[in-house]
Each structure stands twice: as structure tokens, then as C-alpha cells.
Amino acid sequence: MIMRIFQVTVRPGKEDAFARFFHDTAIPLMTSQPGLVQILPGAARADSPRQFSFVMVWRDLDALQAFVGEDITSPHIDPAEAELVEARDIRHYDLIDV
């Protein structure tokens, strides 16, 4: 399984708009993806009001690529998100059973 950590920094002044997008669009979109085993959405906190994240566990590389395309380092950008986000960071890891 592949763990994908996707973090965004929201543009200043766009925090409320992104929070609505995150809850109303991004989370429902992600939870409906075939091959997504688990998702942990992380909303902004008072000490980091412009930071949001998703920790996702994908069944395998094929499932992840079906969602984002062949280049898994590329973000999947919803048009409503594009103008709200200042920066994105994506990391991938092989999930280890403990």
C-alpha cells in the first residue's frame, strides 16, 4: 500500500473559502475514490490557519495513478481549489504494517 501525504498552504485571506471547499468538495471527492483504503483529512488549526492536509492510504500504485495520472508527484487540482492555494507539497511512502 502507498501512503500519500498531501499538504496545502492557502493564500492569505482565502482560509474560509478553502475550508468550505475542503469540507464540501475535497473530502467527499476523496472518500469516493476506488482504491482509497483510508483517508485522514487534517483541517487548519489556530496556530496554522493556512495549512490543510490529507493523509491517504491507497491500495496500490495502479489505484493512485487512476486518480492522479501516471505522474504521482502531480497534484489532483479541482478548478475551485486552484485560486485558493499558494503552495502544495506531496510525499509518498510505502506503508508498513505494525
UniProtKB/TrEMBL annotation:
A Pfam short name: ABM
Domain of life: Bacteria
The protein, known as: Antibiotic biosynthesis monooxygenase
A single GO molecular function term of this UniProt record: monooxygenase activity
InterPro entries: ABM_dom
Keywords linked to the UniProt accession: Monooxygenase, Oxidoreductase
Residue stretches making up the ABM domain: 1-70
